[in-house]
Amino acid sequence: MRLSNTNEISIIGLGNVLEGDLGVGCYIIEALAQERLADNIRLAYLAEEAIKTDVWLFEARLAIIVQGISMGVNPGRVFCWNYKTFQQHIPWLINQSKTISPLAQALARTELAGGFPKKVLLIFIQPKETSKPCISREICKAMRLAIKIIKKELQDNGTLLANNKIEPIYRLKPLQGSTLMF
């Protein structure tokens, strides 16, 4: 277990890459890992292990959690919620994704332990394709928007390196419609 740092920023991706667009959290973490980020920014892809987010949240200054979740809206729609908004939607969100209940538990446990982050941002993206391991065009577009939101938040927190502009990540194009091979 790692030691906490109150200046730390955690960006956590959730979701299963084998379920297509529901694995968007992984791809966003992968894209951010290719950027020049400050040393106090921790990236974690936890797949469907949302219960383990508390380890990454504890005493962080900022926590950003991103995942694909079916909300019954147009594919690629991006929702950006604070913790209070998330709490208001938990009752119906639990039925939308198997990671919501463990995530809510991890957040509550972190709060109870007195190590809740100063700010929590949850980014949810409506998937299109969930039956095979590929990324839809709509999700590629949504990923760029989500990354822009994340980078803007990092910039507002003074942790985006000065030479790291907020710009789209063009490397995502090859993912469109591709099938992952194992």
Describe this structure in words.
By secondary structure, this protein is an alpha/beta fold. The chain has 5 helices and 5 strands. Strands 2-1-3-5-4 form a 5-stranded mixed sheet. Strand 1, helix 1 (24-33) and strand 2 form a beta-alpha-beta unit. Helix 1 packs across helix 5. The two termini are 31 Å apart. Residues 166-182 have low confidence and may be disordered.
Topology:
Blueprint: E1 9-14, H1 24-33, E2 41-47, H2 53-57, E3 62-68, E4 78-82, H3 83-93, H4 100-112, E5 119-125, H5 137-156
Parallel strand pairs: 1-2, 1-3, 3-5
Antiparallel strand pairs: 4-5
Identify the notable features of this structure and list them briefly.
disordered C terminus; 182 residues; 32% helix
Mean pLDDT over the residues: 87
Question: What are the secondary-structure elements, in order, as H or E?
Answer: EHEHEEHHEH
Strand proportion, as a percent range, falls in 15-25%
What is the distance, rounded to the nearest whole angstrom, between the alpha carbons of the first and last residues? 31 Å
Q: How are the strands of the largest sheet arranged?
A: 2-1-3-5-4
* Coarse morphology: globular
Poorly predicted parts? 166-182
Main sheet makeup: 5 strands, mixed
Structural class: alpha/beta
Helix content: 25-40%
Q: How many distinct beta strands?
A: 5
Number of helices: 5
What Rg, in angstroms, do the CA atoms define? Answer: 15 Å
